[in-house]
Amino acid sequence: MTKLYLEAFSGISGDMFIGALLDLGIDFKAFKDQLARLHISGYELTAERVAHSSIYGTNFDTVLAIAGKDDAPVSAEEAHAHHHHGPHRHLKDITELIDKSDLSAAVKRHSIAVFTDIAQAEAKVHHMSLNDVHFHEVGALDSIVDIVGAFVALELLDVDEVHCSEIADGSGFIKVAHGVMPVPVPAVMQMRVGTSIPVRQETNVRTELVTPTGMGIVKEIVSEFGTVPEDWEIQGVGYGFGNRKIPQFNALRVLKCKKKI
């Protein structure tokens, strides 16, 4: 079985996580074939090996056919928020979509757990019932691919244990369609309630580094925070790049490990 260690020195998002696991050697066609079991359309997946600061890694992206320039979310937080105009999906709709898919029981269970966690945080932040929380169509489709894709990737790598470093987030405020939001963004901060997840704010980074999807994945899979366990042997290193321009190297580094014999 495979162990993973996440080095979140520039935060974590769903696409960074998937990019890092693809960079570790997951077959992209096998990954896409598994995601096709969702039986949804309107998107195309890309995975490109590129160099940032002369370091090669993978840039994973979901290109949405339904996303026009006016629909593109300003931030990951806003993509989840309930106040968009236009088509949207409630948590119940997304849960049913995942349940009716041909994905494995484990991928379904973990994916629904993350979506529920995000929706509960949104409900608390925006003072509404869980049933009233809805995801804008563009943000919902992107989130479905990122969240379900994360657990598909973990299954393809045969991962049974994940540890993580302290997680870096940005600071300041970000502009969204209806005003400004503080960083960490409200949903992420709410998702941290009742946890002991170590988060360090980078005062020189004036944007979000941890998305609700990224925090949801961390909460669902990470069993311990700290350094790489002494009885783990590193077998591979993968980099998943983020899309934001920040002063530091913007990637999630993931170490593929096995327990020493």
UniProtKB/TrEMBL annotation:
Organism encoding this protein: Lentilactobacillus parafarraginis F0439
Protein name in the entry: TIGR00299 family protein
Keyword entries, A-Z: Nickel
Pfam families noted in UniProt: Ni_insertion
